[in-house]
Amino acid sequence: MEIILKWVLSISLLLFLLPNMSTSEEEPVKAVLIDFLHKLSIENKNIDSDLLWNTSTDPCTGGWIGVYCDKHNITVQKIVLEGLHLDGYIHLSRLCAERPITVLSLKQNNLQGGLPDDIGGCKRLTQLFLGGNRLSGPLPSSLSSLNNLKRLDISDNMFSGPLPPDLSKISGLITFSAQNNNLNGSIPGFDFENFDDFNVSYNDFSGPIPEGGGQLSYMSFVGNPGLCGEPLKNACPPPMTQSSSKKKMKMLGRLLILLSGYIVLGLVLLCFVVFKLIKRRKANNTPEKLVGGAPERRSSGSSSSATKSTIEGGGHSSVTKSTIEGGPSRSEYSIATTTENSSLVVLQNPSMNVRKTLRFEDLLKAPAELMGRGRFGSLYKVMLEDGRTMVVKRIKGWGIEREEFEKRMGRLDEVRHRGVLPALAFYCSKQEKLLVYQYQPNGSLFSLLHGNQNGQAFNWASRLNVASNIASALAHMHKELQLDGIAHGNLKSSNILMDHHMDPLITEYGLAPTIITTNQNLPNTFESDVYSLGVVLLELLTGKTVQNNGPELARWVQSVVQEEWTVEVFDKVLVLDGSSEDRMVHLLRIALKCIDPAPEARPRAGEVAAMIECVKEDEERSLVSDTSLVGE
Fold this sequence. Notes:
Elements: H1 2-40, H2 47-50, E1 67-69, E2 76-80, H3 93-98, E3 103-105, E4 127-129, E5 136-137, E6 151-153, E7 158-161, E8 175-177, E9 182-185, E10 197-199, E11 204-208, E12 226-228, H4 242-284, E13 318-320, E14 334-336, E15 345-346, H5 360-365, E16 368-374, E17 377-383, E18 389-396, H6 402-414, E19 425-428, E20 432-438, H7 445-450, H8 460-481, E21 496-498, E22 504-506, H9 526-542, H10 551-562, H11 572-576, H12 581-594, H13 605-631
Parallel strand pairs: 2-3, 3-4, 4-6, 5-7, 6-8, 7-9, 8-10, 9-11, 11-12
Antiparallel strand pairs: 1-2, 13-14, 15-19, 16-17, 17-18, 18-20, 19-20, 21-22
Helix pairs in contact: 8-9, 8-13, 9-12, 12-13
């Protein structure tokens, strides 16, 4: 009985002491966090009050803005202080000593100074985001000791000096963004296959791009005049060794000797020719050699005429050059083709009366401008004599029978949707196919996202509307052409044009030759169209460019979402514009369903269109609600 009583008293004492012990350990952590924040902010002395950082409340449960804890709300793990106009300095020694911080994001502020060497003490860091500040100086070598680091963003700062040489030894690094700094030296030998995002553009790096860098986009390295090698256009000079230098000098000596011999031989031949000419002139001047009569003078004249270019060896459709008669030479382009069965089939189109006015001869002689080349052919902008502008798609190497192609074009002409650009006419031969479309001057969705927007606002509402229209158009085509087995086969943002109302038009539907696609090892099926639609949705949400049909972008998005860092996925333009994060996340989930690795698990295009329509309706209800609140 006495033993049991002692045991009960010990347990009671321990339960009494545990809360006090926990409180005494938390107090230093709070002080360190608030001290870290004060050093980040110089001008705003009340930054702790603004963010509700208070020693009287718990960092995990007291509503501290920018502080995120583990799932048990016990330990601080993430600190996210973005876009808060912080103008101070980074001090990390005490912070990392007190708590195992895994994520630190201070991007889009005005922080100054350098990155301290004590960053090496933050051993648990997996993500470090410092982009968009005024940080300067060299990167500390201790940065290379962060072996758990997966994402590192130091872009848009003023860092200088070389990269730490051991930075490339962080095996788990999948994001490295260092663009728009003053970094120099050579690029370490990273394992580029591991990266979802790698960018060192617009610095002062020099030397050859390491092995494996050629598989990345040239945009990852552009803006470094001293860099060479793939994927950049300027090739690296071959390395100069001492032995090769000696060989070159020896070869140069031999070349000089050989050249001297040729010069001597040339002088001898010249003297011989001069001697012969003098001797012949003397012979011609003798009376007995003189031929009577005036010599016949050959008149020479020049005539200018226009030269019509043709393609030798079969006369396939091509870009050719011609000259203008009676004036200075200039380059023009025209589309030439074979005369074999040169009949242009004009399709029914209620929007344009082209059946009587569009002739094959007009297309052949009209000037044409090459707009681009792709996997399946070339695209030309053709200007007819009457002022109309057309686009001609030329497809070569498609082994489809003429009858089957004509049947396919007729079926596509029957199945119309306002979101799909119809062909006006087509030409078919064994060697090639030509398709004629109405020109759309507002460019493609790709150029709107990644190029010149021509003053057009492309906010969240516009992108959601584009996503809804594309999905609806694709769903209609899939429904009508299911039995025909005609999918799009090559859906991407550059194949989606914007009409005069800035609404999307899917182009080139059903015109991709059946091949094995690179992104999922499947033929051109309806399931692969849904995958491509998902990639377009990701492109709208992230603002990132797509390479190799989108698997890199899909992997990057999935890895970020798995790390519960979803907001990092979205385009900064959308985030800064205050777009609804809930509805963006909803659209992101739809996109992730579309890119499911298992084709049978992907939704149908009609289901995707219905899901996006729900998001759109929710957005419209929210706008109406906001408007009514403003009216009140």
